[in-house]
Amino acid sequence: MNILLLGSGGREHAFAWKIVQSPDCTRLFVAPGNAGTAEIAQNIALSGTDFKGIHRFIIENSIDMVVVGPEEPLVRGLVDFLESQPETATLPIVGPSQLGATLEGSKDFSKRFMQRNGIPTAAYETFTADQIEAGLAYLEKQNLPIVLKADGLAAGKGVLICQTLEEAKVSLKEMLLDAKFGDASSKVVVEEFLNGIELSVFVATDGKSYKILPEAKDYKRIGEGDTGLNTGGMGAVSPVVFATADFIKKVEERIVKPTIAGLEKEQIKYKGFLFIGLMNNNGDPSVIEYNVRMGDPETEAVLPRIESDFVGLLKGIATGTLSDYELKISPNYSATVVMVSGGYPGSYEKGFKISLPNNVEGSVIFHAGTTRSNSGEIINQGGRVIAVTGIGKGLEEALKNAFSTVEKISWEKAYYRRDIGQDILKLIN
């Protein structure tokens, strides 16, 4: 198969790394890719939102399957566009329709979907700018802390947990009246705060059948001890010790099955990955949010644990034959540590040369915000730059392997958290 993979982050490098291991992959193109994907595939200077350019490239390069990594092309309707063109109408695509992608594109839409289909989630109300007074009055009746979510896509930064009523009122006004997150916060979901431990469960589905992939726990805040600003993710571990077989069974029965059944019942076309952000409250799962693609950096921790052919999984999703695919999961642990540019998630400097080791043991280096300079050096080009995944028989060994590789990577002002996985280690020990 000639495969086109869309995206440029650590998630896409992990996808590419797994895809090229398959005997079913003849050629892999990544658009636009990064310095890491360029080493194992052919990068193409195409944006994921250049629908006409993608369509032209598919035809000119005899592409047999398209895999969409990030959410933006999906929310903008890439799948619908390709299916509306005669030449690509039947092309296998991994990614949901635009309506399916609204599960991530609109928090209000996804909350209403959960309500209709009896899926456990936090109580909520949604407000727009002309409902600001009603929104402020609603806040006064809620328990603290309270969660405010921008309805639309806000690059993982549109969720605020407010500890005081005053903070919540100021934040609601900033989001609705001052467009704090642009168009994304033209609607705001005000949501009950859920107590418990957070984790992510990943589901592959062809719209009818599904496979539950390994779960993961990510670390969102910039500072050690989960302090400071929210980021796109500073690390992840898989498996998650508190996600027992009993808990995952509850997730499957109460959340996965009703979600897939709801998509089918409401005729929402969905062939892709579903990332379910969950809260484990004393052994009972509740949905925090849906994302309509694999998570980043969780993908870098999850994919190394999949032992079965990955292209077979992608083909099963895209062609509606997922029930025939046998998913095999490794018992090994993986731990991912993300290295970022100094100053991230605020402003940061780009263009520093990255020093990378030639050989690493027990770990894999995934590129995210990297590019190759005109002189051939790999330089930092984004906020999250490198994700290192350590693999081991236990979490301690996986973490040791990850950090020993991280210590061999350097560039000016690089930063990473040294406490990734420590909370899980305490639970184990």
Automatic annotation (TrEMBL):
> So, what pathway does this thing act in?
Purine metabolism; IMP biosynthesis via de novo pathway; N(1)-(5-phospho-D-ribosyl)glycinamide from 5-phospho-alpha-D-ribose 1-diphosphate: step 2/2
What EC number is given for this enzyme?
6.3.4.13
One BP term from GO: purine nucleobase biosynthetic process
For molecular function, the Gene Ontology terms on record are: ATP binding; metal ion binding; phosphoribosylamine-glycine ligase activity
One Pfam match: GARS_A
Keywords (A to Z) from UniProt: ATP-binding, Ligase, Nucleotide-binding, Purine biosynthesis
Q: Which residues are in the ATP-grasp domain?
A: 111-319
Family, according to the entry, reads as follows: Belongs to the GARS family.
Q: Return the PANTHER family for the record.
A: PHOSPHORIBOSYLAMINE--GLYCINE LIGASE, PHOSPHORIBOSYLAMINE--GLYCINE LIGASE, CHLOROPLASTIC
Protein name (record): Phosphoribosylamine--glycine ligase
Q: What is the lineage of its organism?
A: Bacteria, Pseudomonadati, Bacteroidota, Cytophagia, Cytophagales
User: Quick one: which gene encodes this?
Assistant: purD
